[in-house]
Design goal:
The chain contains 4 helices and no strands. With about 140 residues, the protein is mainly alpha-helical. Helix 1 packs antiparallel against helix 2 (about 50-75) and helix 3 (about 80-105) runs antiparallel to helix 4 (about 120-140). It starts with a helix and ends with a helix.
């Protein structure tokens, strides 16, 4: 095996390991988020200490997810980092603009429902996916 093949294999293995780690911590964060959202209603009848514990677990899983994402991004090559940077920039901008307007819809009496902040997460995810597709098309 040549040095280039060995280096390529180690990069692929590192990417697989980072992707697996990111998937595990993101799944843990999502599970604890669901626990915070639905546990008080369905499982523990709004017991404050259990809810505080669930929030603490969610914050810890969120921190671990952020660190796994950071490691994943640091270990990508320069082109992959650039693609993610473009997608993240688009996602941040769209989420900020959408979140600001979405939060003002009720107070400006344009809608009668109370805007749910989790909707911003969906917009963020969709805009990130669109950004990834656009950046891949631009740089590939």
């Amino acid at each position: 095996m040549t040095n280039i093949e060995s280096n390529t294999n180690s990069i692929c293995e590192k990417n697989k390991r980072n992707t697996r780690s990111l998937a595990v911590w993101t799944s843990a964060w999502l599970l604890t988020l669901a626990m915070v959202a639905f546990g008080p209603i369905l499982l523990w009848d709004f017991h404050k200490m259990i809810t505080i514990g669930a929030i603490g677990a969610n914050l810890l899983m969120g921190y671990k997810m952020i660190m796994a994402n950071k490691q994943h991004l640091e270990d990508l090559d320069e082109l992959q980092q650039r693609i993610h940077l473009v997608a993240m920039a688009l996602s941040l901008g769209v989420s900020m603009v959408f979140g600001a307007v979405f939060g003002l819809l009720e107070s400006s009496r344009l809608v009668e429902f109370h805007p749910n902040p989790s909707s911003v997460l969906f917009v963020m995810g969709i805009s990130y996916a669109v950004g990834m597709v656009l950046a891949h098309r631009k740089y590939s």
